[in-house]
Amino acid sequence: MLSVAEAQSKVLEQARPLPPRTVPLDAAAVGLVLAEDVVSDLDTPPYDKALMDGFAVQARDLAEGKTVLTIIEEIMAGQTPHKTVSAGQASRIMTGALIPTGADAVVIVERSQNLDGNRVRLEDRTKPGQNILPRGREMRKGESILRAGAVLRPQEFGLLSSVGRTAALLHPAPTVAILSTGDEVVEPSQVPGPGQIRNSNGPMLLGQVARAGGTPRYLGIARDRLEHLRPLVAEGLHADIFVLSGGVSAGQRDLVPDVLTELGVQAHFHKVAMKPGKPVFFGTKQQALIFGLPGNPVSSLVCFELFVRPAMRRLQGHTDPGPFLVEAILEEDFAYRSDRPTYHPAKLTCGSKGSRVRPVPWFGSADLRGLAAANAFVVFPAGEHQHAAGQAFSVLKVE
Q1: C-alpha–C-alpha distance, residues 118 and 62, integer Å
Q2: CATH class belonging to 325-397
């Protein structure tokens, strides 16, 4: 049986970034990964710019730290200066405005005193370049400002807009088809009958896919009959990633692995040494990645975070797909016994003194309510242990 790390390696061996395409820079592009280098089409700022409201002057006029100057004009942001600043002169200037010819510094308005309509007393030992952002200081025309692999956050949107880009070559969000299985499963809107349960995995996986930046597509619930399961599985294989929940164990009605094989899916593993989630399945068909997750909701969530989410990130073009674990200190003594490494629901807190973790009450992989109190999984090793407060453990964040 594979370890979690071995199984993750097999998944990432099969995952390739999706072919890039030109995407408009709108809200749907947030979080996507750039597939091209971007260069500036102009110098930024495109002119020497005032950083503060004040007076544009020749710095040598304030060599002694104070002087009285004649105001020759007022320059607002967006206006072009009309007069050259000479010795003994100043132009009143606003933040963002173009520095007039002849001036080499700006004295902030707080260091000024108006004497009359056209004279000002300045008190500031001024140096050339003071309170001025020179042309091209941020970037030069033709300079590379973003490299392929950059993730588009709001600040990247602003930077791309500043060089005139309204679209960019990006790796698209992967489409993820989601199919729940089982005769006992009904939709959340229905009242369960005898022996039935509501479908919690479908909505949960939809949320996980959306949180991971994918485009989810819900296919509904497949019954434990080949004639019902087969066409829904065939439909799911057209997505970039196909996630099934339930039907992957070894029971008489666990039909998913056989149907996947029948439809041409190559299995890469089926069962991983972990708890919960041991029966997890992974296979491929052409470029599609197929994950069969156990039906118990905690198993499904853990397997998604450990295997599906990293695959999604690789398809999106991320060079480091995760999963991302942190080290945290156990807050209290905790006894635990298992024959496999266990991902136990936990509450993770991060503060100035580091990260701390506390297991939450949990009675197994079907306990969805216990999971709602958690924001992480603490990884306990196999065996029977009396874990002591103060020990460090790896923790998988799921917020």
Answers
A1: 18
A2: mainly beta
